[in-house]
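Bug report (template v2)

What were you trying to do?
Predict the complex of my protein with zinc ion.

What happened?
Run completed; filing so the output is reviewed.

Input:
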Amino acid sequence: MREIRYLGDPVLRTPAEPVTAFDRDLRRLIDEMFATMRMADGVGLAGPQIGVGKRLFVYDISNRQGHIVNPELVIDDPAEVVEEEGCLSVPARESGRPLYAPTPRAAGVTVRGFDRLGRPVQVTARGMLARCFQHEFDHLEGRLYVDRLPRETARKIMQQAH
Ligand SMILES: [Zn+2]
C-alpha cells in the first residue's frame, strides 16, 4: 500500500520519466500499485499518484485488468463521448470520495507499451476502458481530468476538493 497524492501535490503536475529497468523493483512497484488501487476502490492508478514519477499505470475496469509500462496512446476514434469521471487524487474534502464530473474523451483508443517483464503489449479499447486509458495517460503527462472540464465545472470541483 502506498499513500495517494492529492491535487496540489507537484508530482501530479510533472511529466513522468520513462521506466528504464524491468527489474524486481518494478514488479514490486506494480504489485503495490494494484494493492493501493484496490484498497482505494479505484479503477486505475498511475505512478505519479503515489509519488513515483515513472511512466506506468495499472487498471481494473469493465472486467479488464492489467498494467502498462511506458505507454503510447493512439486515438482510434476521436468522436467525443461525455461520461462521469473522477480521480483518486481529487477527493472531496468532506467525504474523501472522488469528485465526479461529466468529462469529454475520445470514443476509442489503442495503448501500446510493455509489461512487467519488458514484453510488448497492446490493448484496443472503447467505452469506460478507453476513458480509463486516456485518464491514466494524462497523469503521465502531468494532466488531470479537471483540465478537460469547462472552466466553471472545474472551479466547482476545485472548491470541493481536498
Ligand atoms: Zn486519476
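What did the reviewer find?
The mean pLDDT is 97. Residues 87-89, 135, 139 surround zinc ion (CB under 6 Å).
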